[in-house]
């Protein structure tokens, strides 16, 4: 991986309920479902100018040069999975990162990971600071979901959710976030 220190948008995407999927369907069938999902998330990352940092479990950690490209990738990932056999959740945050030991570290990594932990299937969450950096047309498709404390942060953060796109307004707010 090339040096990616500096301002990046970090995106996490994860297959929802994968443990239950493997338990109910067995390992072979679970892998048959998860493998194409992981391949597609990686391909979509690259299509939108992002870099796969690493896979972790049944999910991906990616970086993007802009908030808009991460947003577009998140929508594409969710769109692909709506037609598939498994669901995913996505979260991203933008900020200063440090590249070391083949990985990226920094505040946006921690925030994106915390947001992913509260996201539900089919949701895309982002920090308020990140939402404010979206272009106007994309920002119009987000809504403040909550202001909450997240582990590791001294102050509450604004949590935004993608509520749809101009051609898909069926997404509704259904997550309630509890302070951790």
The residue fraction in helices comes out at 25-40%
Mean pLDDT: 84
> Strand fraction band?
25-35%
Instruction: Give the assembly state of these chains.
Output: single chain
User: Helix/strand/pairing class, anyone?
Assistant: alpha+beta
* Unreliable residue runs: 166-180
Q: What is the terminal separation in angstroms?
A: 33 Å
What Rg, in angstroms, do the CA atoms define? 15 Å
Largest sheet: 8 strands, mixed
> Which geometry do the CA atoms define?
globular
Notable characteristics:
180 residues; alpha+beta; eight-stranded mixed sheet; 37% helix
Describe the structure.
The chain is α+β, with helices and mostly antiparallel strands and 180 residues long. It has six helices and eight strands. It has helices at 18-25, 27-47, 67-82, 107-118, 128-132, 136-139; strands at 6-15, 51-56, 59-64, 88-100, 103-105, 124-127, 142-148, 157-162. Strands 1, 2, 3, 4, 5, 6, 7 and 8 form an eight-stranded mixed β-sheet that branches. A hairpin with a 2-residue loop joins strand 4 and strand 5. Helix 1 runs antiparallel to helix 2 (27-47) and helix 2 (27-47) packs antiparallel against helix 3. It is globular. The chain starts with 5 loop residues before the first strand and ends in an 18-residue tail after the last strand.
């Amino acid at each position: 991986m090339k040096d990616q220190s500096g301002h990046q948008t970090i995106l996490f995407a994860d297959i929802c309920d994968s443990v239950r999927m493997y338990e109910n369907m067995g390992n072979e069938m679970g892998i048959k479902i998860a493998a194409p999902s992981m391949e597609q998330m990686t391909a979509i990352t690259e299509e939108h100018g992002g870099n796969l940092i690493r896979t972790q479990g049944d999910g991906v950690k990616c970086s993007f040069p802009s908030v808009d490209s991460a947003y577009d990738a998140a929508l594409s990932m969710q769109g692909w999975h709506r037609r598939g056999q498994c669901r995913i959740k996505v979260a991203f945050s933008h900020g200063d990162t440090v590249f070391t030991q083949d990985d990226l570290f920094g505040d946006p990594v921690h925030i994106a990971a915390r947001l992913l932990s509260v996201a539900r299937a089919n949701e895309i969450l982002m920090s308020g600071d990140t939402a404010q950096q979206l272009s106007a047309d994309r920002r119009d498709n987000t809504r403040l979901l909550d202001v909450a404390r997240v582990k590791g942060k001294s102050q509450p953060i604004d949590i935004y959710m993608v509520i749809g796109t101009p051609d898909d307004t069926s997404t509704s707010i259904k997550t309630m976030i509890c302070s951790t």
